[in-house]
Amino acid sequence: MEQDAYREAGVDIDLEAAAVKSLISELTYRRKGEFSMASEIGHFAGFVSFGKYVLAMAVDGVGTKMLVADALQNWSTVGIDCIAMNVNDLYVMNLEPIAFVDYIATSELSHDQMKQIGKGLNEGAKLANLSILGGETATLKGLVTGLDLAGACLGIQEKEKVITGSAIVPGDIMVGIPSSGIHSNGLTLARRMVEQHGSYDERLQSGETLGESLLKPTRIYADVLRICEETDVHGMCHITGGGLLNLNRLGEFGYIFDSPLPPQEIYTWIVQTGGISEQEMYRTFNMGMGYVIIMPQEGVNTVKKYYPDAQVVGKIERSPGISLNGKKLF
Questions:
Q1: What ranges make up the beta strands (E) of the chain?
Q2: Fold of 31-161
Q3: What is the domain partition of the chain in residue ranges?
Q4: How far apart are alpha carbons 289 and 221 in whole angstroms?
């Protein structure tokens, strides 16, 4: 399969980026008076000034991973994904998530499905130490098919402790923290591979089924807040949709990956099954690395204290671009 397999599966990353720019170009109004906007649109989260603090907001959903849950009739973990995709976007700016609201749009309600979703949301809240304040459930028969789960998260931090990536300098090192698997991005392409070339019951060499692998919940990186308290951190990145391209949100640097984390077995299966290029894999999936911390070398041991599975994956250089094992990807 050629390089634009994700687009053929139904998601055009380049078109999405252009469409979002069109939307953002119209968002020109800013609140006047107290509690004004204190960030630019386009980072992982946006925030407003609140005295000595900033209040931050992030919004995200589970996406087409819900269709995998439907196929397996198992919705017990997608709530974790919903919270994880939000709180991880706050952590990258050293923002502490404190509250969450969910939004469910469905064609019809099911007691069992809602109970399972609630179970996952509660577990995600526990892992992230936040309160679920409420939410909205809308029955939209004719507008949606199935069920879509999304949410918004509120975070807080002292202004002087917010990390935006502005402190990154050439010579910093990148520490990668493994993902739990595919997380909640790239599922449109992954599902296409399974549905065209296998089945959710097919087993990988490890014995895990494809369905089980795709449904594994997103890792929540709550301990990075402790890392930021204990050592100097210059920037952080949550590797979501767009893969390594997410790093460009931190600034135009050379992100040189010379010791990348090994991708999980599900990625090997997708490559071998669909013939997807390395470049497209790394611009679609997290490829085994869900989170990156950019810092001076002396901070590595602090990261390893909280994440023993973390490792130095590369370094920052001045010339812009993203390189993997000596080859420029983007």
A1: 46-50, 53-61, 96-106, 131-139, 147-158, 173-178, 235-238, 254-257, 289-295, 311-317, 321-324, 327-328
A2: 60s Ribosomal Protein L30; Chain: A; (3.30.1330)
A3: 31-161, 173-328
A4: 12
Residues 59-103: tens digit of each pLDDT: 999 999 999 999 999 999 999 999 999 999 999 999 999 999 999
Secondary structure (3-state) at 310: coil
Cα(313)–Cα(162) distance, rounded to whole angstroms? 24
- Please give the CATH number for the structural domain made up of 173-328: 3.90.650.10
Q: What is the rounded CA–CA span in Å between residue 84 and residue 103? A: 15
Q: What share of the chain has pLDDT > 70, as a percent? A: 92
pLDDT tens-digit map of 270-290:
999 888 999 999 999 999 999
Instruction: Find, among 263, 308, 252, the residue nearest to 286 by Cα.
Output: 263
| Mean pLDDT confidence for 227-235 | 98
Closest CA to 205 of 290, 260, 264: 264
Q: Residue 35: is its pLDDT beyond 90?
A: no
Query: How far is the C-alpha of 118 from the C-alpha of 131, rounded, in Å?
Result: 13
CB 247 within 8 A of CB 237: yes
Report the candidate in 266, 296, 244 with the shortest Cα–Cα distance to residue 194. 266
